[in-house]
Amino acid sequence: MGEVMKSSYEGYRILLVHAHPDDETINNGATMALYASLGADVTLVTCTRGEEGEVLVPGLSHLASSHQDLLGAHREIELANAMKALGITDYRFLGHYRDSGMMGTDQNNRPDVFWQADLDSAARELVNIIEEIKPHVLITYDEIGGYGHPDHIQAHRVAMRASELATWQIQKIYWNTMPKSVIAESIAKMKEIGSDFFGAETADDLPFAKDDSLVTTLIDGNEFVQAKMDAMKAHETQIALDGPFFALSNNLGLQVWGHEYYTLVKGNKSAPFDSAGRESDLTSGVQL
């Protein structure tokens, strides 16, 4: 944890809007655990239950949508266990939207999937939560949802639209990001040991890799990496213990998951800054 962090964040309220259970842990697990541990009210809204996710545990393959279609209920349990690991008590789903699957699939055309939801109707559901909890900070995806998944794109649209419709004005809005320099370093180190980084040769192969200049904020959550790893393990059907996420930490060290990066898209970039001129606190400049 950076020395510039306040000793207490009691009274500060942070809202995260994600597409599926596990997205919150991969993108923001250390950030969530850090702020919650220091007294901030952290609320997670997950837009779907991830019913179309691939099941990576052979013994649970019957849960898949192509079999018994019970994965959504199981991922609710995984999410609850992950939130316990991160110390988050306020987590909820945005209505009953179904996972949309990938673009061009039959699942994506179902009328009950999140991608097919009316934007303003879904946004108004989120507005109700915003008016209830009155967040100072909102975290969600960029306009391509990080990597183009329809539920991620829709989560971005719904979050941004809700922030416009709400009477309560959110002071700072951030989009998750991952700087190319960090990804390039990870690719190089994985190549050194004869492995790969999600099959990518260079950072330019990955849609979620962004120019470093877009990173306005770096949260140092290294003290909470173990909590993040425990939360990732809780999402057992989605994050394989022998898969790329754990391979990264096994080979590069846990700190690879301790730094989480953001782009500020609403509000003023505010001190304190790190040596690279990036914010080191999501709530800097927020008026209580």
UniProtKB/TrEMBL annotation:
Gene3D superfamilies: LmbE-like (3.40.50.10320). HAMAP family: MshB (MF_01696). SUPFAM superfamilies: LmbE-like. It comes from freshwater metagenome. This is Unannotated protein. InterPro entries: GlcNAc_PI_deacetylase-related, LmbE-like_dom_sf, Mycothiol_biosynthesis_MshB. The lineage of its organism: unclassified sequences, metagenomes, ecological metagenomes. GO terms for molecular function: metal ion binding; N-acetylglucosaminylinositol deacetylase activity. Keywords: Hydrolase, Metal-binding.
